[in-house]
């Protein structure tokens, strides 16, 4: 799931002062102090995005566990639930990217979270009426996925306009840190809620988190600039194609997107099978499964804290490659752990998930920043959408492959196959110019045809 966050040059490694209603500005002498911590509008955005992350983490575990525990779903059916959740990244991401480039982003985020609140709350309401069926879980997962696409593409394109590109490293590091905390608390919270209220009703509580996020986003008062109007209006399908061309014509973006797609495919295969493996082979409770995934994500928080220092010491490219090695080798520990559910098994799995989280987050911080720093503002929506189309579009494929292999060769055997496949993501970056970068390259041209001019 590798994406990342850093701005061009060394921006974000120093602090800055808030300049009223505008984005934080640097002070005299080139030094900055206390940038985004003192920016009230960013703090509102950070709060809303963070609560959304927690809600998404609860949904990610509670929805498939609803299928497993309430509807007695098979491995293939759980794979279909996860596939439906991420299919919109393949089906509608490019269209959403064109839309995001043409409108203001904050209203889209608000509407998306309001819709997610409604959908996740509908599952327990149907359960109360004894009308919940696996088919509705598929539909809910699909629609929640569509709204997640809208929110994610909009928020990544909104951030540079809110804080300025010179603060992207700091802003993205804070957002990645919040994402890590959500991964720590979200699965554990989901497991506890499921244990206390059962899986469907945990989603009702989760619906409230999205509504709190809506309130936080509504409170932002910094004006969002209108989207840039092109001199010549481009047709819809030409604009959709631009999202792919922007990435394909840049060696750096192309390699990052391909490795992300491979990594995400393997991760979703692992996640689909692991929930079943932990529940049925290891006989772990929902609360333990959630806490296991959550404590493993402590590594993500650690990765977000050291990522900037790692880049400073190693350089951008080596830091990305080293982080990927860490998170792509660790998955083999999961099926190697004894299949008895004992303390050794739990300790090894916590260590594996911690290493996966640390490496993935460090890579994400730098890859997202690389993307944002070299892409002009007017192309950010299409670039983010094209990138998500390639990278997140592989998630439903991974879910289907994991579910199919789980039924065909067994759960533990599928975990071994998936662990080996993770190394393909490392190979893509090693064979590209990305790992040789010392710092951020020059910004790409303002038209898709000139994106091959990225500096090295």
Automatic annotation (TrEMBL):
Q: Tell me where it resides.
A: Cell membrane
Keyword Ribosomal protein set for record = no
- Which intervals of the chain are annotated as region Disordered? 1-27
Query: What are the alphabetically sorted keywords of the record?
Result: Cell membrane, Membrane, Transmembrane, Transmembrane helix
> Which organism was this protein described from?
Streptomyces caelestis
Single GO molecular-function term?
A: transmembrane transporter activity
Q: What is the lineage of its organism?
A: Bacteria, Bacillati, Actinomycetota, Actinomycetes, Kitasatosporales
What's its membrane topology? Multi-pass membrane protein
Q: Does the keyword section mention Transmembrane helix?
A: yes
* GO CC aspect terms: plasma membrane
Chief location of this protein? membrane
Q: Which residues cross the membrane?
A: 51-71, 78-100, 106-129, 136-155, 201-220, 262-279, 285-307, 319-337, 343-368, 389-409, 415-435
The protein's name: MFS family permease
